[in-house]
Prior knowledge:
With about 140 residues, this protein is an all-beta fold. It has no helices and ten strands. The chain is about 0% helix and about 45% strand. The model has no long low-confidence stretch (mean pLDDT about 75).
Amino acid sequence: MAVSCVRADPRLVEFNDIKIGHVYKKTVTLFQFTAASPAMVVVPGLLIPEKQEEVRDCLLIHVEDTETIKIPLLEFPKVCSLLVDSVLDFGCIAANNQVISKHHPITNKGTAPGAFQVQYSRDPLVTVSPCVESLQLAPPSG
């Protein structure tokens, strides 16, 4: 009796930056290793997102009632990823009735526009501007 082994390619299926209502397909190929077995192609996975959310699921492929192959399916929507220094250090300031400002950049490195809001309620003499702002995508570096 010949021993057979089945392998799926790819072993993980990811759909990145999905949009609601768009159709996404990915083909999974099964390879059966025996004396002279050709590869089999499984019907392409079909994804039509209905919500803008991260989804983790799996595709189960049953092989001749002897083996089940589990292929993780991951769905990732477009997201905003804001980058800012973890500590905003203004240093030691002696104002002497002068307006002092310091620039702290906030960059969107994600795949979707986003917004931020700054809340500060300690010293009424210190103001933060802008407090609410929308950010588009950062230009590609290169």
